[in-house]
Amino acid sequence: MTEPPPRPLGLFEAYGIELEYMIVDRDTLAVRPIADDLLRAVGGGQPVDYEDGPVGWSNELALHLIELKTNGPTPALAGWTARFGADLARIDAELARHGAMLLPGAMHPTMDPARETVLWPHDCHEIYAAYDRIFGCRRHGWANLQSCHVNLPFAGDDEFARLHAAIRAVLPLVPALAASSPALDGRVTGLLDNRLHVYLTHQARIPSAMGQVIPEVIRSRQEYDARIFQPILAEITPLDPDGVLEHEFLNARGAIARFERGAIEIRLLDVQETPRADLAIALLVTAAVRALVDERWRPLAEVERCATDELVAVLHATIAAGERAVLTAPALLAAFGRRAPCAVGELWRGLAGELRRDDADWRELGPTIDALLAAGPLARRLVAALGDAPDGARLRAVYAELARCLVDDRLFAA
After folding, report:
1. Closest by Cα among 409, 411, 414 to 398
2. CA 353, CA 181: separation in Å to the nearest integer?
3. pLDDT, tens digit, 9 for 90 and up, residues 346-365
4. Residue 326 sits in a domain of what CATH number?
5. Closest to 296 in 3D by CA, of 154, 161, 169
6. For 337, left (φ over 0), alpha (ψ -120 to 50), or beta?
7. Does residue 395 sit within a domain?
């Protein structure tokens, strides 16, 4: 008798977490394009994706990038700090043989993408070559960015619509927690989230693929196809007549629907200095999304009425100022049960107190959430350590310490 297909996962029944890191020289921090050597060492001599039990290793686009991810959906985040940590220790030992290591944080502070980028030359290389031909991938926004993606499941159009509406309202607030990219091209730019600043335009050649980064209000798979996928297909076809690129994967909004796996992927989180911090931020962001889905403060129909332009303005403010950005947008304040303008960091501290749960995830990660909210986002701490005009030696020293935080599983302290 044929087994029935597995039941689709519903709202908040699981997470999928993806963490990206850059491979750099252990002494100089220069970019090292050796992800294929690492994957060969663990994968039986072939540069292919590797599964280490619950943790998957893979590469995307650039030869200096390695991604760790939950190998499928996980019902809880508790325990994943240790799981990711064990694999990071193994990777560190393998890379040490090459005089290399992993660098966390969302951008390398001195990388020259035009000179240092080497595209993945193995399986799927034709896809990356097409991206490079159309968009030019040897630049910031493509080759110099590391993020944390959080995947949340849904089952059917009703759950999709509710989840999408809630995520849309939370997205502009994310950099206040997760910004970790204050420096690029050898300087502190004045923005806390340079990764998102360059991300806003990295696929601008196909405007329908980017939208306004904050997604539109969309309530069904059919509407998503008509308003997002079909316009992308129409724009990419003249540039990719052989159909190498899948139009579904060209969607680069801050949250994208993955209908083939029944999930929405949140893409606006910079990767942190340790998976413990990534998981803590993912937990708090998901708690806020869940509260909106549950209509804790306002009906979702009212939350949906937050104008996209208004949300985009908030996103630009948090990209620049992180937790110190002041939230004045009345509709977004009301969505979280607030009336008076407040700093976004203050809003997150209040939400963390309101939304805390007595479960294993919060018991394990709650103290890290509290520490992050007290210390400010990683970008703020990096700026404090770097100063306004760091020289090359200072940049190397601070980011070498950041790399040690990854191996030691500790928060970066300025």
Report:
1. 414
2. 27
3. 999 999 999 999 999 999 99
4. 3.30.590.20
5. 169
6. left
7. yes
